[in-house]
Amino acid sequence: MHMLFYVSVILLTGLVMAKVIRLLKLPNVTGYLLGGLLIGPSVLGIIPRDVVGSFSIISEAALAFIAYSIGSELNIEHLKKIGKGVVLITFLEAIGATLCVTLGMIFIFRQPVHLSIVLGAIGSATAPAATLMVVKQYNAKGPLVDTLLPVVAMDDAVCIMIFGIASAIAKILLEGVESVSLASLILSPIFEIIGALALGFFMGFILAWISKKVKGEDELLSVIIAFIFLTTGLSIQFNFSSLLSCMMLGTTLTNILPHNKRVFTVIEHFTPPLLVLFFTISGVELNLSILKSVGLIGIAYVVLRAVGKMLGGYLGAAAAKSPKTVRNYLGFALLPQAGVAIGLSMVAQRILPAPYGDEIRTVILAAVIIYELIGPPLAKFALVKAGEIQSE
């Protein structure tokens, strides 16, 4: 069959399964993943295994737009308003998850260091969509909500930075520690991160200037898509993190043009089908045969990440002198994982050789389904215990 046939099947399956899963009051992303798994090689085989690799360009494009959107939330004036305490909490809960997963995998489950640090970095990501859905559904208000919303907004940006460092170190370790100098081990990740940020800033500066000259929305959309793809392509060419570059592209725009919302809202006409394809393709790529070998590691990842999020959230809230309800229950509302974690697992699959990349991809996709199932009920539990749910 032609590739466009498969793209159509994937898109329609994702949309239908999202409607089905919504009846169970679960997030759309769970439906997309399950729909992709159903039609993929591991179950029905409607999408053949030899075709799956051909969808990588769709995943790369979706990741670029996700990172661009995350960057758009990092307005300096906004960060000043929410205060240093929330920033501190965000860093500690993200680092808490990273350390728990990394150290647990290395010292308890005896996994390779390069696999462990990449898996730990992905563990820091939190999906805001499921948590926000619960907050809106129950009209929740109070100190916990006031802390939770900015934390989940900034969390993925911190995660991308942590992943940039971890992936650079993992690539160096794979070449053999004995063949790499200490200077290279330290300077190579720094070079990659600075390069990615510099590229994103430069492209964002140019795009900000051009966007002022563009009047029509159709033309503006085309220009923004071109710059996002150009930034991604150059990042991959120079071995920079495309996620960091695109995030910096969005960050630069939102700070140079803080009142020009068009540069961010206009892409909403383009991204919905792209994101449906991305999540459903992620389900298609889920290899159930690997679950046997990574089953224990998958369970360990879910548990270790949850412990890290709760411990990091507690310590961060305590350091920021937040109310007791925030310290005790923030971690429960930070468990869902989805878009960024799936995207980073795809990047990990590309930079780590088999079977490590495949294992990370499978662990993360399985964990996303688990977290998206238990995440919303746990977020509701936290809000109820904190006394911030106003109405059912």
From TrEMBL:
A Pfam family it matches: Na_H_Exchanger
One MF term in the entry's GO annotations: antiporter activity
Name of this chain's protein: Sodium/hydrogen exchanger
Places the protein is found: Membrane
Membrane topology term: Multi-pass membrane protein
Keywords: Membrane, Transmembrane, Transmembrane helix
Cellular component GO terms, alphabetical: membrane
Domain Cation/H+ exchanger transmembrane: 11-375
Organism for this UniProt entry: Defluviitoga tunisiensis
Taxonomic superkingdom: Bacteria
